[in-house]
Amino acid sequence: MMLIYKVIIMSILVGTVLSVLLSISAVSQTDSLKSKPLPASLKKIIQEVISQPTNSNDVEIEIDGLLVDDTKTKSGKDFYDLFYANWDAPNGSKNFTITVSEKPFRLTSTMIQVSINDNVVYQGILQPREDILEALTEEAIATTQNYLANYEEITRQLNGEDLAGSGIY
Predict the structure, then answer these.
(1) What's the confidence (pLDDT) of residue 15?
(2) pLDDT tens digits, 100-130
(3) Helix pair 151-158, 130-149: axis angle to 10 deg
(4) Is the pLDDT confidence value at 99 over 90?
């Protein structure tokens, strides 16, 4: 029993001595990388980028007009394929992401949702019949295009003077 205690104490002492030796050698090392000063042309470019005024308060999305497929069934995939094939964004629309998602519904039908920037724009019950699928796709495209065409007006109304204030009557 005494031998086990001696072994444990020795291992702790050896570990402590090794950690002290390693920390001393790490502190005494010097930086092996030599830094060079920036060239004047690079400094000038950096200053120009920093001093440029921002024209808009809106955050710009780099991938503009993205269509995201979040469907689960074959009819949902067919709806997305028809939507994608017939989709044309209205002129002047920017900073949007369209998500086509699907939720299970009764029996063979599902609930399809089209949302723009996480705002549900269109919702319908999708059935596995081709004629209903095409009609719902046309309706969803028309609703989505109308929303995007009026998006600037909608955001202006939502952030307008009517809603500004303290909220006290």
Answers:
(1) 64
(2) 999 988 887 899 999 998 889 999 998 888 9
(3) 60
(4) yes
Beta strands in 43-142 (DSSP E): 66-70, 97-104, 110-116, 119-126
DSSP 15: H
| Residue whose pair of structure tokens reads 């998602």 in the numeric block | 101
Those residues with Cβ within 8 angstroms of residue 91's Cβ, 6 or more apart along the chain or in another chain: none
Q: How far apart are CA 118 and CA 115, in angstroms?
A: 6
Give me the chain's average pLDDT, please: 78
| Domains of the chain with bracketed CATH | 66-152 (3.30.160)
pLDDT at 146: 92
- Spatial distance between the Cα atoms of 139 and 124, rounded to a whole number of angstroms: 10
Query: Which of 79-83, 148-152, 160-164 shows the lowest mean pLDDT across its residues?
Result: 160-164
